[in-house]
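#lab-general

N.A. 3:47 PM
ok so I finally got the sequence cleaned up, no stray characters, all 282 residues accounted for. can someone with queue access submit it? mine expired

B.Y. 3:52 PM
send it over

N.A. 3:53 PM
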Amino acid sequence: MSLFLLVAFFVGCTSRQEPPAEAKGRVNATAAFVKSFGPVPPVDKGTCYGFVIYFPSAKEAGKVLPFPFFTFDEASLKKVALGKLVAGMGDQKAYQGELAQPFPAGSRVLEVSETAGTVTVNFSKEVNSAKEQQQQALVNAVVLTLRQFTGVTKVVIKVEGAENSLEKLVAKTDESAVLPLAPPRLLGVVGMKEKGAANVEEIDAFFDRPVDIKELTLSGTDGKKIEGDIFQSVFDMAGVLKSKTPLSLQEGTPVKIHWRVTDKLGRSASGDGEIPLEIRQH
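B.Y. 4:20 PM
back already:
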């Protein structure tokens, strides 16, 4: 999953210049989201759902790390969450070596059904090949991701509609599998331009959770500061620099960045670095 696909699922391509005087939208966040990341920032319109996907840790067997996600589509919420979980985030450089991928290649979510509080997940046959030492992490990730949703009291895991060795591990899943969160991390820097435009009009610095931007400075490799106004993105997942003049930047151009942020539960972090720019269109 590329950085852009990940953050697009987080926030889309829309930035807000300032908080609305009166939020017209509605945000429904799970208790798991609020516990890990604090209150969800308001949205201008629509009904948004904030939830957590628990990805298996590569450093501590059976443990999982929470990541925030947002969607406006309630109907497919559980299946989309599981699909993202199966896809994994192995190419996220900010978490290189920290996230495991217990789902064998080719694994798919065939069906997600719910009856009287019981959610049944039916995986494709590839899941039967999951390594024994990673099976508990796989189950913990699936069960904890689903249990957070209102009304879910039980999770059943099937493979091609049949019972399997993973089912007996469900009973061992509890909140102790969730690792405590470290301070916020910078995921990457993306230059955004209108479709068909030659130049970049804004540069977005994406973080791994909603944050308040305290400091954000971007400059070229020559040290010249990129002038512009700084705003927060939708859901506060990024700091947005609106350039005063269009920027002629190419994919992979190194950008120097200085940042200082605080997340919604008071965890602070800062950093300085040089990052290759991704270019995307609105």
